[in-house]
Design goal:
Radius of gyration: 20 Å
Largest sheet: 6 strands, mixed
Strand content: 5-15%
Distance between the termini: 22 Å
Structural class: alpha/beta
Number of helices: 10
Number of strands: 8
Order of helices and strands: HHEEHEEHEHHEHHEHEH
Length: 306
């Protein structure tokens, strides 16, 4: 009874904390971005980018705090003890909720570089978000379709070259690039609609991951295959559990993989490479499906012993 009465206050506290932290840190990063725009010198850009990254990590700590403000979350993390903040990583992860972003922020604050996303060029013009992401040196991609390239052959490879130029900034700041390979959040309805051959996952989309490796593969120290499982997430939204203080356990498995040379190639123009890469990613997804099954058994066992 008391828990039900306190629930609205927990929602208000968690939401207010997240919104206020995002607003304050976001405004600071935007101000740093304005200085970057006014001081177009490489040395100044590197210093300001590092300063913005420190504020981004502060935001990560604030988001990590959300898991402790109104609920005693217990973290069950395996396989991340050998990671380092001064390395470069690419993450391939399953996607259950936008809470996944906060989970990855929590992991980054522990022992990984702060994460980055590859963004569509159009997002640059989104108020606040676009300029904030630019200040954090997140790459904005401009992809060209096969039809556009056929009409204008000079566009061939320009998207890769442009993104590679943007990613040169990551040579100075250790970075983690995140790929949610399913392309959308998992739900039972989407699972049925896509007729997924995986029990707990949607089919992975290989293009974005292959593009990331083609662009930055030689810079990455490792690929991190991260699997996230929330107890009871099939029954209710994870974000609601977080806001109302009922998210008590989070299970995360991290597997570190080498960046093999055969994983770097032209996915969009090399048919043989595309087939091999799809097979590799599908095999990773098959293993991830097994990891989720194992973690769900662990959840049932942990629940039975409480």
């Amino acid at each position: 009874m008391l828990s039900a009465l306190l629930m609205p206050f927990k929602v208000l506290i968690n939401f207010s904390w997240g919104a206020l932290a995002t607003l304050i840190v976001g405004l600071v990063i935007i101000i740093i971005g304005l200085f970057k725009f006014l001081l177009p010198f490489p040395a100044a850009h590197r210093w300001l980018s590092s300063f913005a990254n420190n504020w981004f990590r502060l935001w990560g700590y604030a988001m990590s705090m959300m898991f402790r403000i109104t609920q005693p979350v217990t973290w069950h993390i395996e396989g991340d003890s050998q990671l380092h903040r001064d390395r470069w990583y690419m993450i391939i992860a399953n996607h259950r909720s936008w809470v996944d972003i906060l989970v990855l922020m929590h992991l980054a604050c522990r022992n990984m570089p702060m994460p980055r996303f590859f963004l569509k060029q159009q997002l640059f013009w989104v108020p606040v978000i676009g300029f904030g992401c630019w200040a954090l040196d997140m790459p904005f991609m401009k992809r060209y379709s096969k039809a556009q390239i056929e009409r204008n052959p000079h566009l061939q490879g320009r998207d890769i070259a442009t993104t590679q130029k943007s990613c040169e900034k990551f040579r100075h700041i250790p970075t983690t690039v995140i790929n949610f390979c399913e392309g959308t959040r998992f739900t039972p309805a989407k699972h049925q609609q896509k007729q997924s051959k995986f029990e707990h996952l949607l089919p992975p989309k290989a293009g974005g991951t292959a593009f990331t490796l083609q662009t930055m593969g030689h810079q990455f120290d490792a690929i991190l295959d991260i699997t996230i499982v929330y107890p009871g997430s099939d029954k209710r939204p994870v974000v609601w559990d977080l806001l109302r203080g009922d998210l008590r356990n989070i299970y995360v498995a991290v597997e570190t993989l080498p960046v093999a040379p055969e994983l770097i190639g032209d996915y969009f123009n090399d048919d043989a490479f595309r087939d091999n890469f799809q097979q590799w990613l599908n095999s990773r997804w098959q293993k991830k499906d097994q990891v989720i099954e194992r973690l769900q058994r662990q959840i049932k066992s942990d629940h039975a012993t409480r």
